């Protein structure tokens, strides 16, 4: 089969695969309701209805858990942009269109549930959260925003889209799962575990559709895979002050370079047998070799991060010790 297929040709070739994957997804998915995972009895009115405004002392989450929850929620909030992107690339016809709408419906409950949990438990400043939501959704998101280079990089193809969301869904699953553990709260852990299960099924759909596409046009798929992975960023990177938030999240073990490489990048590449298959030729083979070098660079990034993380944690320990000592001296002085 000819390598350089148009998106329209690929959509047609992959339609039976999409239909099969939809049926598998519907047989594997578990229906759940966001309201079942919210501790409503903990809730109370805010000032506008005669209640109490939010106070930082009301939050029971650690800094890592709080920032991770906000980042995860704001990422989910950009669903309108994600829906637009896959609708433009997948089309709204036949099985493709059914999946676009089904996926959007399932994803929508994630943001609903996360926001309800955070507001009911008063874990975060609701005014700040709403301001961030408006700014984040106004900015929008497109995978093409990640890419650096000429205009050809910014042109999104079907392969670009389906390969990107494969990695993004798996990364989101891992981020939610680790955030749930960081919350140190049974309800939050259950909620985020439920969301993670959704994300995992979504990832399987995109991963297996991508795999089928690689069988049809391997070199064309490799071109997109190389472009996506070497420029990969999570959708949340458009969140205001994302760099600082990412450092806190990484240092806290929710999502860091090692997790990205070992739990997201490598499992997918191994599933697709990228470094074992022999159907890449010419430019495709060259890009596969470059991707192998990129993986080596990611490994080096992991090692550098671990060193930087240990230095940061050591500085924080020293600051905490000095603060504790100062408080002890103040207490001793007051007692004397």
UniProtKB/TrEMBL annotation:
Residues 288-315 form a coiled coil. One of its GO terms (cellular component) is cytosol. Pfam families: FA_desaturase_2. InterPro entries: Fatty_acid_desaturase-2, Ferritin-like_SF, RNR-like. GO terms for biological process: fatty acid biosynthetic process. Fe cation 2 binds at residues 107, 169, 199, 202. Homodimer. This is Acyl-ACP desaturase. The lineage of its organism: Bacteria, Bacillati, Actinomycetota, Actinomycetes, Mycobacteriales.
């Amino acid at each position: 089969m000819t390598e350089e297929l148009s998106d329209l040709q690929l959509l047609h070739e992959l339609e039976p695969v999409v239909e099969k994957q939809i049926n598998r997804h519907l047989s594997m998915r578990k229906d759940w309701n966001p309201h079942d995972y919210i501790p409503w009895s903990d809730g109370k009115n805010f000032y506008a209805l005669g209640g109490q405004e939010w106070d930082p002392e009301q939050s029971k989450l650690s800094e890592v858990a709080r920032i991770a929850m906000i980042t995860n929620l704001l990422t989910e909030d950009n669903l309108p942009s994600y829906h637009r992107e896959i609708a433009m690339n997948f089309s709204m016809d036949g099985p493709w269109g059914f999946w676009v709408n089904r996926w959007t419906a399932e994803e929508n409950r994630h943001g609903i549930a996360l926001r309800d949990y955070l507001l009911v438990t008063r874990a975060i400043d609701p005014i700040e959260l709403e301001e961030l939501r408006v700014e984040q959704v106004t900015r929008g998101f497109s995978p093409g925003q990640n890419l650096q280079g000429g205009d050809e990089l910014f042109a999104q193809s079907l392969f670009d889209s389906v390969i990107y969301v494969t990695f993004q869904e798996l990364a989101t699953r891992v981020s939610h799962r680790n955030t749930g553990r960081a919350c140190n709260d049974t309800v939050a852990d259950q909620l985020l575990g439920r969301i993670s299960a959704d994300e995992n099924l979504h990832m399987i759909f995109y991963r297996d559709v991508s795999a089928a596409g690689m069988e049809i046009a391997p070199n064309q798929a490799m071109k997109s895979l190389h472009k996506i992975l070497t420029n990969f960023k999570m959708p949340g990177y458009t969140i205001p002050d994302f760099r600082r938030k990412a450092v806190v999240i990484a240092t806290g073990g929710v999502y860091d370079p090692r997790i990205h490489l070992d739990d997201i990048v490598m499992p997918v590449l191994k599933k697709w047998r990228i470094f074992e298959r022999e159907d890449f030729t010419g430019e495709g083979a060259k890009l596969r070799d470059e991707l192998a070098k990129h993986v080596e660079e990611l490994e080096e990034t992991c090692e550098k991060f671990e060193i930087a993380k240990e230095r940061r944690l050591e500085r924080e320990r020293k600051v905490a010790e000095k603060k504790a000592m100062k408080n002890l001296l103040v207490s001793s002085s007051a007692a004397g």
